[in-house]
Specification:
The structure is a homodimer of 173-residue chains. The first copy, chain A, is mainly α and 173 residues long. Helices cover 57% and strands 5% of the residues of chain A. Chain A is built from seven helices and two strands. The longest helix of chain A is centred in the C-terminal third of the chain and has 25 residues, at 132-156.
Chain lengths: 173, 173
């Protein structure tokens, strides 16, 4: 499917509402359970999404538009949420994500990105040259990736409860 | 996590709203694309969920409560949606799913299922003895499984658009 900025922005603006519908007012044990080992709970994922809004997506978009390939993106801290979310509730994280994502969408609109702009290249610290279009498409896919992860992690909390149906439910494997 | 009927019912009642937020008014190419081969598009999944409400979940719950292990569940047709959804729009399927899920939740409430009832056993055509609790837990996990599938399938439509980031996005593999 060809990238479309309007559809991508629309999809990004939906994520906070989807996550609130999925996770709001659920019992803590459902949102704090992970998939074992060092995997993330839905609570951890929310913190990660918030950190991305604050330090990753819009800052990188601005850097591409303003500096092209002359400045390399700051590496993204994938573990910042473990400190940043300490002592917070899921309801606080959902509200914060709504706010920071809304700010990101506003910032994106104000930049009036054109079809031409989407071809501008920036410099990723590991991947090298990437375009603005690839960055925004990645933002959308990153949301969907974590939505799938949250669904899967929630499902796994009922792994024992489903009994023999475990054999039929591919998400539990 | 221990099964809890109130939380399970709450989770089931949220799914139509989540799917509307995710899929409502999206361009057709995003909701009709699949993962290749015989995999399902989000449109196919919606039809499958509707068919489950009409023929699977509540009918099986009623059969367990009324007949225990004396009657075997009807096998579920996993391909009925390809005929049933023909000529319909995603908006129609979303509205139908809202309606049939709402009817299912009403039916569930009216049955006044107790903790004792959850232990009643029914007979699955392939899995053999299963409890009412396992059936309802499976319903919840089945929703989450298909939500993850829809997210993953949507993400894959941007597989080319993300460029070199493909290497970092586990959902695209």
């Amino acid at each position: 499917m060809h990238f479309n900025l309007t559809h991508a922005t629309d999809s990004l603006s939906r994520t906070p509402g989807i996550l609130r519908s999925l996770l709001g007012n659920l019992p803590n044990e459902w949102t704090s359970g992970n998939e074992g080992d060092q995997s993330w709970s839905p609570f951890d994922v929310l913190g990660h999404l918030i950190h991305g809004e604050l330090t990753d997506w819009i800052p990188r978009i601005k850097l591409i538009v303003e500096s092209g390939e002359s400045k390399t993106f700051e590496p993204f801290d994938r573990f910042a949420q473990f400190e940043a979310s300490k002592g917070k509730s899921m309801e606080e994280l959902l509200a914060t994500f709504e706010e920071v994502r809304s700010n990101s969408i506003d910032a994106l609109h104000k930049m009036n990105i054109t079809e031409e702009d989407l071809k501008i290249r920036g410099k990723h610290p590991e991947l090298g040259a990437v375009t603005l279009e690839e960055l925004i498409a990645t933002w959308v896919v990153h949301d969907l990736d974590h939505l799938a992860q949250i669904s899967r992690t929630m499902a796994k909390q009922y792994k024992e409860a489903v009994g023999p149906w475990q054999a039929y439910l591919s998400i539990l494997k």
